[in-house]
């Protein structure tokens, strides 16, 4: 178990031996974490080596065992974070720095993982064909007025499974299954592509609304071709009928056999620092977990919302039920 104190954050700027390094297994796209790793190296002198893994992160660490070179896991979605713990590939990290900057709701009860950003699962809606007042809840998406008008990525993608897990939490298994079935009936095409591809489909007139994560709007506005897609839609923040807007988390954990444990701890604490939280806010268009750090001006311009207060660990526990529903309704078929 690694333990540190709040004074450690200030010590990050102390000169570090040239051989100091942190090896990171990441399921986050390289361009999303590069601003953070670059800033960490500049502040501490500790080099970072990043291996991007689209899938199979836990399985790879299990296969490598004590021989694994990885110090840090970076991933998205509460279920993925929980899977690393259940797979026995993480270790607890006790740190006053992490506990001070990361709210209890966004960290593992046993300090096995720590959230570093949040994002909302929202609706992108055509400016030309959809009145924003038509969609105020996630339940609205099951209405037959949207038949043939919705696009989304795979129903078994972690982002959609987390949303369905929240639907199960609010309404129970049977009602959530009916919602998923009705949502499938409203699809304009089979689930495909990523969240940005759905916005492109709206721009192209293939559908009128889609599900997506908030930060993709910012990323599309950075791209010359994708700007026209982004400018064709409104960002809407639906809520559950008896809840708020669905939120998910990106997070970090230390591997069970981290060969550079102290440097890994320094990296984790840097992610919780005001500097890193501001980078996440400005460069990645995400919501910082540190309530003292504001979202970027662009993100704030999309509107205010009330986050759903469901416990993230409960959503992780409901993931298997959500996957079963998606398979039973043949959502991707």
TrEMBL record:
Binding-site residues for Fe cation, renumbered to this chain: 215-216
Family designation: Belongs to the bacterial solute-binding protein 1 family.
Ranges in coiled-coil conformation: none
Species name: Roseivivax marinus
Molecular-function GO terms, alphabetical: metal ion binding
Signal peptide as annotated in the record: 1-20
Annotated keywords: Iron, Metal-binding, Signal
PANTHER family documented for this protein: IRON-UTILIZATION PERIPLASMIC PROTEIN, THIAMINE-BINDING PERIPLASMIC PROTEIN-RELATED
InterPro entries: Ferric-bd
GO cellular component: outer membrane-bounded periplasmic space
Top-level taxon: Bacteria
Protein name, per record: Extracellular solute-binding protein
């Amino acid at each position: 178990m690694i333990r540190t104190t709040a004074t450690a954050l200030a010590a990050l700027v102390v000169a570090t031996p040239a051989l100091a390094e942190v090896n990171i297994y990441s399921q986050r796209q390289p361009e999303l974490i590069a601003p953070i790793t670059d800033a960490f190296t500049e502040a501490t002198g500790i080099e970072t080596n990043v291996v991007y893994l689209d899938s199979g992160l836990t399985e790879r660490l299990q296969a490598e065992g004590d021989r694994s070179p990885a110090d840090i896991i970076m991933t998205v979605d509460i279920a993925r974070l929980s899977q690393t713990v259940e797979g026995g590939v993480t270790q607890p990290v006790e740190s006053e720095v992490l506990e001070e900057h990361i709210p209890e709701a966004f960290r593992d009860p046993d300090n096995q993982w720590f959230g570093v950003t949040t994002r909302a699962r929202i609706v992108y809606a055509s400016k030309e064909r959809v009145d924003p007042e038509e969609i105020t809840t996630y339940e609205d998406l099951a209405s037959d007025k949207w038949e043939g008008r919705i696009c989304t990525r795979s129903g078994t993608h972690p982002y959609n499974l987390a949303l369905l897990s929240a639907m199960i939490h609010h309404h129970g298994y049977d009602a959530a299954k009916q919602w998923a079935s009705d949502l499938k009936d409203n699809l304009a095409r089979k689930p495909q592509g990523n969240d940005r591809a759905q916005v492109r489909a709206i721009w192209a007139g293939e559908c009128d609304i889609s599900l997506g994560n908030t930060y993709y709007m910012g990323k599309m506005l950075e791209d010359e071709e994708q700007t026209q897609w982004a400018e064709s839609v409104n960002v809407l923040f639906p809520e559950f009928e008896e809840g708020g807007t669905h939120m998910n988390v990106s997070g970090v954990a230390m591997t069970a056999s981290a060969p550079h444990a102290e440097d890994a701890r320094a990296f984790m604490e840097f992610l919780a620092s005001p500097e890193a939280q501001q980078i996440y806010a400005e460069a990645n268009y995400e919501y910082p977990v540190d309530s003292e750090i504001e979202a970027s001006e662009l993100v704030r311009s999309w509107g205010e919302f009330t986050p759903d207060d469901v416990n993230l660990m409960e959503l992780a526990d409901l993931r298997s039920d959500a996957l079963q529903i998606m398979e039973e309704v043949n959502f991707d078929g």
